Amino acid sequence: MxxxxxxxxxxxxxxxVRAVDDVSFTVGEGEFLALIGPNGAGKSxxxxxxNGQLAADGGDIVLAGESILGLG
Length: 72
Prior knowledge:
Elements: E1 3-14, E2 17-28, H1 43-50, E3 58-63, E4 66-67
Antiparallel strand pairs: 1-2, 1-3, 3-4
């Protein structure tokens, strides 16, 4: 199955707090993925990096084979 969205070793910190630390996953065409976890686990931060509201500190975001990191 072809990968539609890939997060590769994504990282984001706010001061000394690592909100997202080395997160990687792939979503293929026609697949669904749920990010679950307690408050403060970094779910919203992760999605805000994918949609361009936040810049990642490291890693890569690939959409349909093209890096979109830094386009937002």
